[in-house]
Amino acid sequence: MNPANIMGASKRVSEMIVQHKSMAGNSATRFVTVRFGNVIGSAGSVIPLFKKQIKNGGPVTVTHPEVVRYFMLIPEACQLILQAGAMGKGGEIFILEMGAPVKIAEMARDLIRFSGFEPDVDIKIEYVGLRPGEKLYEELMTDHENVVATDHAKIMVLNCASVDVEILDPHFAMLKQAARQRNQTAIRQYLKSILPEYSCPGHASMFSAEAEKPQTMQQ
């Protein structure tokens, strides 16, 4: 996964908390996590935006000509999430088979053609550049995570070590404090302390052999 922005880092931290909750053993509820890519037609999907831009006569805005993403239909995503939940014994992180990644620029061109127009003739495509923390290629796992097959062809499980959240509890407390204060720099620092794989330029991890406790924030 290698998060490069706050959204991706917060998702990974949430996975850690859910996994720890399941491993705690003091609840009858089974907690599992399911990772997957984009869902076509969902609230955050780019397709409704493209359709609106085409309806308005363009331009259709794409961040980068080489950007690619994974996509899945809503019914398939819902079914696989329910099946993964039924398979889980507690603490697993499941990952859905998303198929081949789709180039967003080509998707935009196809939507323009399906709407009865010619790309770059009737409707222009405008490249606006990647936003801060946005990747060209979507990653659903880190280099340190191993994927293990399950009995379902489209559902895999990550073979990763469980996280001792109690060690990280002080860092979570400082992260919450930074969030309440809307201190963006501190939020990135504490996320980096919790997640070494979080690529946060300019903010070094606060984990070190000399400092076992997180730094104290100024009030």
Structure overview:
The chain has six helices and ten strands; from the N terminus they run αββαβββαββαβββαα. It has two domains: 1-27 and 164-219, no CATH class; 32-159, Rossmann fold, CATH 3.40.50. The strands form four sheets. It has a four-stranded mixed beta sheet, sandwiched between helices. It has a two-stranded parallel ribbon with strand order 2-5. Strands 3-8 form a two-stranded parallel ribbon. Strand 9 (146-149) and strand 10 (155-159) form a beta hairpin. Helix 5 runs antiparallel to helix 6. The chain is of the alpha/beta class.
SSE topology sketch:
Blueprint: H1 6-23, E1 33-35, E2 38-40, H2 46-55, E3 60-62, E4 68-69, E5 71-73, H3 74-87, E6 93-96, E7 102-103, H4 104-114, E8 125-127, E9 146-149, E10 155-159, H5 165-180, H6 184-194
Parallel strand pairs: 1-6, 2-5, 3-8
Antiparallel strand pairs: 4-7, 6-10, 9-10
Helix pairs in contact: 5-6
Order of helices and strands: HEEHEEEHEEHEEEHH
- DSSP E strands, number: 10
**What name is given to the CATH topology of the largest domain?**
Rossmann fold
Strand content: 5-15%
CATH class of the largest domain: Alpha Beta
Rg calculated over all Cα atoms: 20 Å
Spatial strand order of the main sheet: 1-6-10-9
Structural class estimated from helices and strands: alpha/beta
Oligomer: single chain
Q: Sheet bearing the most strands, described?
A: 4 strands, mixed
Indicate the mean pLDDT: 82
Number of helices: 6
Shape: globular
Please mark out the parts with pLDDT under 50 across 5 or more consecutive residues, or reply none.
202-219
- The H-level CATH homologous superfamily of the largest domain, spelled out, is NAD(P)-binding Rossmann-like Domain
Instruction: Compute the number of structural domains.
Output: 2
Distance between the termini: 33 Å
